[in-house]
Amino acid sequence: MSKLAIVRGVCAVVMAGVSLLEGAGLWAQTMTPGAVVAWGRNDDGQCNVPSLPSGLWYESVAGGVVHSLALRSDGAVVAWGYNGNGQCNVPSLPSGLRYESVAGGREHSLALRSDGAVVAWGWNTYGQCNVPSLPSGLRYE
């Protein structure tokens, strides 16, 4: 479970149970398990954590340069903040699949699906969203 994501070094996104160094200007928050709190520079809304539907919680968090991502308990990914290259436009899942983990790049995002495929979206100038196919019998984890 990813419990801490620093977004461009200016926004901290934290899940319950994480301790941060006070010297970094950040400190631990007491929260309900599965809750996420974010603070710091928020020019593009990267610290505005979306509310969850009733009965759901966040399982992990990730950060890009000025966007944030979180994996919900129902296997959906939510993204917020700067979206100039579509890095917050999470692709729809095929029926019966769920997302299992998330990661954020400079202005792109990635997620691992339950079928072992990695999906990438957003800024692709250098091919960072062109996920290579694996040989037969292998899968991303």
- Our measurement of the CA-to-CA distance between the termini, rounded to an integer number of angstroms, reads 13 Å
* Classification by helices and strands: mainly beta
For the secondary structure, the number of strands is 9
What kind of sheet is the major sheet?
3 strands, antiparallel
In the predicted model, the low-confidence regions spanning at least 5 consecutive residues are: 19-30
The helix-strand sequence is EEEEEEEEE
State the shape: globular
**What is the average of the pLDDT values?**
82
The number of distinct helices, counting runs of at least 4 residues, comes to: 0
Order of strands in the sheet with the most strands?
1-2-3
Helix content: under 10%
> How large a portion of the residues is in β-strands, by DSSP E?
25-35%
Structure report:
The chain is mostly beta strands. It is 0% helix and 34% strand. It is built from no helices and 9 strands. It has strands spanning 4-7, 11-15, 36-40, 58-63, 67-72, 77-81, 99-104, 108-113, 118-122. Strands 1-2-3 form a 3-stranded antiparallel β-sheet, with no helix packed on it. β8 and β9 (118-122) form a beta hairpin. The two termini are 13 Å apart.
